[in-house]
Specification:
This protein is α+β, with helices and mostly antiparallel strands. The protein is built from four helices and twelve strands, in the order αββββββαβαβββββα. The longest helix is centred in the first third of the chain and has 28 residues.
């Protein structure tokens, strides 16, 4: 596989893990699907379960995110499955899914999301960044404008920052169907990524 194919497979698997091993069980226990970004992964906000690198961490245990999803859920004592009825589910992972997550791709996703969380806190300090499992992006909303960092999707397959005004805008800055996106550089460390995302968000505010 090419790196792009490996990255996309890892991105989709991690999104599914976020949805079915953290957000779903958390929603059934605490009625929230919100997740939080961490330096090396992400975690539930009301459930003590997290992804760190390529591992699932839970109270008194850790299991690699490799092999059968149902077996991983059983090892962690989780009721696996997405948060049914909260949003339209798209290709949720079944308990028969066999995970094969690439470490380098996972690290790039975690680094991008964590930098995005830092940038959002600087630019929109009144809002708390949330990692949403359905889109696998860390985001906030201010004055009917979405600001966030996505792990990638059909519009752009790798990590990108975005500014998405609810009302359509025109002009050179607005280069995506939902507003504007800025492709992130995998060579950048967290501090550099954060600075570049902040600058992009500020340009977005000026363009608004």
């Amino acid at each position: 596989m090419t790196f792009d194919e490996t990255y996309a497979a890892t991105r989709d698997q991690l999104r599914g893990v976020a949805e079915s091993l953290i957000a779903g069980p958390q929603y059934r226990a605490s009625n929230t699907i919100r997740l939080a970004v961490r330096p090396d992964g992400f975690a539930g906000v009301a459930l003590p379960v997290a992804v760190r690198g390529t591992d699932l961490v839970f109270p008194n245990g850790t299991v690699a995110l490799a092999g059968n999803l149902g077996a991983i859920a059983e090892a962690a004592g989780l009721d696996a499955g997405p948060p049914v009825g909260v949003y339209d589910l798209v290709d949720p992972l079944s308990t028969d899914t066999v995970l094969d997550i690439d470490g380098a791709a996972a690290e790039w996703i975690h680094r991008s999301h964590y930098a995005g969380g830092h940038a959002l806190k600087q630019v929109v300090p009144a809002q708390h960044p949330v990692l949403w499992p359905e889109h696998f992006d860390v985001a906030v909303v201010e004055d009917e404008v979405n600001y966030g960092v996505s792990a990638g999707d059909s519009v752009h397959p790798r990590p990108y920052a975005y500014v998405g005004p609810w009302a359509k805008r025109t002009g050179p800055f607005w280069n995506a169907p939902f507003g504007a996106l800025y492709a992130l550089d995998p060579a950048d460390d967290v501090d550099t990524l954060t600075a570049r995302i902040v600058e992009f968000f500020e340009r977005g505010r000026a363009a608004l």
